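Fold these two proteins, one after the other.
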Amino acid sequence: GQPDVRVVNLETSVTRSGDYWEGKEVHYRMHPENVACLTAARIDIAVMANNHVLDWGMAGLVETIANSHHARPIEMYRNRLILYGCGDLVNDYEGIAGYGEFRDDLAVMYFPTIDTATGELVQLRMVPMQIRKLSLHRPSPADVQWLGDTIAQISAGFGSSIERADGSLVLRWRS
């Protein structure tokens, strides 16, 4: 049978940093472009609390965190919602240069409606937000479009799609 959850110890930094920890004998590093292998493996939880998160210094740690907080897939499993790496709603990553393609300035508030008798998802409405100066603001329609398209693209393999409605995003899935 299939596992209920897939947990891995991400025993590495996810970084381009060359600022290695001097005096440490072993330094592990995964290139950020390879993060997709975690999605392909359908990893549910990647634990990063280990002795290699600082192998490439504070810059490597910051990049590792940035690589784990961009838009992730949404999956339905037996009509139950699985959210991969939702990220922080409000964070202090603003001003960290070099990761614009991940749009860490955009966040999502998730509003699921669950059938309490069965535990099955009835509806998932998502409200995109933009983080500026440690506060949340409504993003532009173009940013909502980008976020919806990005989540739809990375969720398609899980049988999920995204529709836009009144500045919100709504999950559609195959039962």
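Now the second one:
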Amino acid sequence: MRIAGRGFGRSRWWACAVVLVVVVLAGAASQRRSTKAGLQPTTSEAAPSADSATLSRSVPPPAPKLNALHLPARDGITTVVSLTFDDGVYDQYALNTLLPPRHLTATLYVNSGLLYEDGYKGKMALTDLDDLVQHGVEIGGHSVDHPDLTHLSTSSLRQEICDDRAQLRGWGYEIVSFAYPSSRSDAVTEAVARSCGYLSARVVGGVDCPDCPAAESFPPVDRYSLRTADAVEMGTAVAEMQQDVLDAEAQAQQTGRPAWLIMNFHHICDACNKYSVSERNLAALLDWLAHRPATTAVRAVGAVVLHGFR
């Protein structure tokens, strides 16, 4: 009886082992089929995690492959187009694939207090910003929490503007550009932006309107109130955006002075928001910009402020 008992135990052990091997092999085959079909494995890397936007970073971000702030110099530029995107919403991550093939750059103004975490799942994470900086995007400040700055005390203004810049720099980004949330600014907010170490600050509007110039001048009238064309909206046609650029080029030619067209975007999506541009229309604009004459260039805001038209 004892011998029979020992034999039965060995058989049961081998049966369990065979079942375990079958399960492991089936799981591996299923994973290969999912990957081959273009499906994403169910892991923590399939979507940003809340931990990726914590207010600390154990290692610095990687060095940019295309540094939006420090491009090689180029002579003969008379018109510069700056593509600016506000709020750091997640659909703007499309820039990571739209910009590199066309060798173009952009400026992304983000709120350091509203990156991806519980409650702000439509925002980017630090890892997303790292990817964008690698591929030609300048990161700029947009305040910590996106309030109406004109309603704040001077001390609260410093917390929103200075702390925002300090946090973004602490994460390893070179921060020289600021945009006022909802374009709300006055003399006090301008003074605080300057005192916090920003080299420029942007509003929305002021050019390409009745009785307005077609583009910002360079040097600008006020570095802490950079003017833009009206924000691109859901109904803005590609031809309208192209015409803004043509008008800026005409201004440069007629006046003999450099013209700086700063364009303002928010969401990159198909009609998800009033202030949105479809990825298809944005790609069409970028294709067109990439083939403008050598006298027109696309540059990040910070690059223009740091180096001028080059």
